[in-house]
Amino acid sequence: xxxxxxxxxxxxxxxxxAAPQRRAFSAACAEAVLRHFGSVSVAGEPTGTxxxxxxxxxxxxxxxxxxxxxxxxETVELLRAELEGILSxxxxxxxxxxxxxxxxxxxxxxxxxxxxxxxxxxxxxxxYEAADYVVMSGPSIDLADSRARREILAxxxxxxxxxxxxxxxxxxxxxxxxxxxxxxxISEVREFVGQGMGG
Length: 199
Known about the structure:
Blueprint: H1 7-15, H2 19-37, H3 49-65, H4 74-89, H5 98-114, H6 117-136, H7 148-154, H8 156-173, H9 182-194
Helix pairs in contact: 1-6, 2-3, 2-5, 2-6, 2-8, 2-9, 3-4, 3-5, 4-5, 5-6, 6-8, 8-9
């Protein structure tokens, strides 16, 4: 049986992790959605790409420093406001999949503050929704067909994304993100994201 996205179960699992692990989970999911969906079907550089790249950098910086002051800095507040502004100005849905990329970056910045599990889950949800959007808007899906939802969920893109979210969660759960091994731990998680999340 094909499994879908279960935000409640993921939230429960994230609540069992320490704040540094949740920060790393958020940063990894934000990087994944930017890297894998930030340039899909849009000519040129999509709106918000530069801001999302800065957000991902700041989120990993929060993991690396292991300190809450990164999430409370003036730079982060200004970037959050920029991302929020881009989202609020998109009344016509012109951002397409970038809506999920930008929202993922926004929630990752929120999570970088205190490693909040709820915000971390929202980053993963936007990663999943970006995959869902890309498949749904593809030429092979007929939304009028009663089987469309099942086809979208069963697609390679959505299933790889769902598996990637689980693998990211497992990777961060087995690392502490502090001490001498911090740089290696960050590198291992980022390498997985960079390799297409197992795809």
